[in-house]
Structures are given as structure tokens and as C-alpha cells.
């Protein structure tokens, strides 16, 4: 009789121990599940914030040419042709505006990417956006003596063209345009929610 009671008590203690382990196992499983779920949720949210979408990339490329620096210039160009008694001279003044910027149609694959918490943008190099920068409507003769052909005037135009490029397409002006470009793109990307932005330029 006593043996029978002892067996029942032993079974009861074992049952309590088993149920306690089961409850503990369930609790641990719940904690692990919640922790993983929380971690997965954070990673997913981070990916959604950081990764630039194809729509964003296309919209930036569709900007096309974007001017960041305009330089107005005027050049006085002259030429002299020796004559028998007197020299013939032609002096003309040329006006032009050279516009420096980037052409977003020239972006290369992978130009906009993200790593960790930083957005990286590789922008096309600063260039002269319009090669026809001399305003021929404003060009005027400052002094003219003798007879000059269209070819003579074309030669003066070419000299003025090269002189304007030499005077305006300097490393300092290109650097200024880059700084303006960096500022503008950084503002745009930060407005879209990217806190850290790194911008470089193609060489």
C-alpha cells in the first residue's frame, strides 16, 4: 500500500518537472522568435531607406544637362595685314557665355549605390554644356581698314573661340562648378531621406 502511494507521488513530481521544462522551452522559443523578428524588421526597414530605387535612378538621369556655373566673357581679337603703303587691320569684339555643368545622360551603370548607411553617387565630370557659346549677334567690328574676306573673319572667330575656352575652362572654375554640383545633389538626396551622402566625379 505504501509502495503504491510512493509511486503516485513520484509520478506527480515527474509530471511537474516535465511541464516546467515544457513551459520553459516555450518561453525560450518565444523570446528567440521575437528577437529574430525584431532583427529582421530592422534590417528590412534599413534596406528600404538606403537602397535607391530604379525609379529614383531614372528620374535623376532624366535631368539631362544641369548647369552649375555660367561665365560671361568678351574677347577683343585683331589681325594685321602688311600693305605697300599702309597696313590693313581688323579688330572685332566677341561676346560669349560658357556654361559648365554635368550631363546626367552620361552616367555609367552603378553610379548610384548604397553601402551601410551611406549613399554613394558618381556624377559625370564637369564639362562645357554648349560648344556654341559665342553670341554672333553681339559680335561687332571695333576697327576695320582694308578689305577682308569671310575666311579672315572666320579665322578671327576661331581665335576668339579658343581664347574664351582657355580663359574660362580653368581648373579653378571647374572646381567651383563641382562644389556647386556637390551642394545641390547633397541637398536633394538628404531631402529624400539619405543622411550620409558621398559624391565623386568621373575623371
Structural class: alpha+beta
% residues in beta strands: 25-35%
Largest pleated sheet: 4 strands, antiparallel
Number of strands: 7
**Discrete helix count:** 4
- What global shape is seen? rod-shaped
Q: First CA to last CA: what distance? A: 97 Å
Average of the residue pLDDT scores: 80
Order of helices and strands: HHEEEEEEHHE
State the helicity in percent bands: 40-55%
Low-confidence stretches: 1-19, 40-49
From the alpha carbons, calculate the radius of gyration and give it in angstroms: 37 Å
Descriptive labels:
rod-shaped, 4-stranded antiparallel beta sheet, 203 residues, alpha+beta, 48% helix
Structure explained in plain terms:
This protein is α+β, with helices and mostly antiparallel strands. Helices cover 48% and strands 28% of the residues. The protein is built from 4 helices and 7 strands, in the order H-H-E-E-E-E-E-E-H-H-E. The strands form 2 sheets. Strands 1, 2, 5 and 6 form a 4-stranded antiparallel sheet that branches. It has a 3-stranded mixed sheet with strand order 3-4-7, covered by helices on one side. A hairpin with a 6-residue loop joins strand 1 (65-81) and strand 2 (88-103). The chain is rod-shaped. Mean pLDDT is 80; it is low at 1-19 and 40-49.
Amino acid at each position: 500500500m505504501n509502495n503504491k502511494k510512493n509511486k503516485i507521488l513520484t509520478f506527480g513530481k515527474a509530471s511537474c518537472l516535465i511541464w516546467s521544462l515544457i513551459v520553459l522551452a516555450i518561453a525560450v522559443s518565444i523570446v528567440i522568435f521575437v528577437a529574430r523578428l525584431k532583427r529582421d524588421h530592422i534590417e528590412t526597414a534599413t534596406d528600404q531607406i538606403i537602397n535607391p530605387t530604379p525609379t529614383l535612378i531614372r528620374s535623376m538621369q532624366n535631368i539631362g544637362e544641369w548647369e552649375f556655373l555660367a561665365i560671361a566673357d568678351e574677347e577683343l581679337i585683331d589681325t594685321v595685314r602688311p600693305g605697300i603703303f599702309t597696313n590693313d587691320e581688323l579688330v572685332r569684339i566677341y561676346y560669349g557665355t560658357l556654361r559648365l555643368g554635368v550631363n546626367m545622360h552620361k552616367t555609367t551603370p552603378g553610379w548610384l549605390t548604397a553601402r551601410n548607411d551611406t549613399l554613394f553617387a558618381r556624377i559625370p565630370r564637369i564639362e562645357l554644356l554648349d560648344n556654341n557659346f559665342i553670341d554672333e549677334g553681339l559680335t561687332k567690328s571695333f576697327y576695320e581698314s582694308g578689305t577682308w574676306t569671310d575666311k579672315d573673319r572666320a579665322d578671327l572667330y576661331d581665335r576668339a573661340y579658343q581664347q574664351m575656352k582657355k580663359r574660362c575652362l580653368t581648373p579653378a572654375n571647374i572646381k567651383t562648378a563641382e562644389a556647386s554640383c556637390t551642394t545641390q545633389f547633397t541637398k536633394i538626396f538628404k531631402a529624400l531621406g539619405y543622411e550620409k551622402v558621398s559624391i565623386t566625379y568621373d575623371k
